[in-house]
Amino acid sequence: MEKNVSAAITAEELQSVISFIQQAEAILPFLISLSNEERHQLPKLGSKSVDFVNDSSETVKAFPNIMPPTFDKMEFVKDSDLVKALITIKMVLDSFHQKVDDTLMEVGSEAFSKALEVYAQVQFQKDSVPGLRSAYDKLKVRFARSKYKQKEDDQIVNN
User: Fold this and answer.
1) Which of 5, 62, 78, 90 is buried deepest, with most CB atoms within 10 A?
2) pLDDT value, residue 85
């Protein structure tokens, strides 16, 4: 099932992508970041709620006099319209994000599999190739067991 992603991103292309993302952020200066606590406290907008907000907005537009004067109808309609626009942006970004994630997973898997082959050869030849021992010492760190895990395993074996 290997996809064999074979591509490269130049420094200029990487900077261009980052620049485009920064430009998008500059176009939407009202974007915010919420803490986990803030996220937890907010009422959530699910798919049924989106329709409810849209229908409520249309109702306020069609019957503006039903709301008390303290209700900011213009702000509500503005918020409702922003929800629609942000959902569209989110759909496009989610698709892009998924492609980046999937490509990273695939190419990461390919690179890690090849790195394991390299490690096997280094491990096998570390004593016969001058200077290879230092590369082995650096690579073997990836497989070092933590002291906690080692103690845990020792306890299992000794019990």
Assistant:
1) 5
2) 96
3-state SS class at 30: coil
In a domain, 14, yes or no: no
Judge if 147 and 104 occupy the same domain: no
Cα 112-115-117 angle, rounded to 5 deg? 115
Q: Which residues touch 83 (CB under 8 Å, ≥6 apart)? A: 45, 50, 53, 54
Would residue 6 count as lying in a domain?
A: no
Residues sharing a CB contact under 8 Å with residue 118, sequence separation 6 or more, in sequence order: 139
Which pLDDT belongs to residue 4? 82
What's the gap between Cα 153 and its chain centre?
34
Q: Does the structure show a pLDDT above 60 at 153?
A: no
Query: 24 in a domain, yes or no?
Result: no
Q: What is the total count of domains within the chain? A: 2
Alpha helices in the chain (DSSP H): 11-27, 36-41, 47-62, 73-125, 132-139, 147-158
The answer to whether position 36 is within a domain reads no
pLDDT in tens, 103-125: 999 999 999 999 999 999 999 99
57 and 86 both lie in a single domain: yes
Range of the domain at 157: 126-159
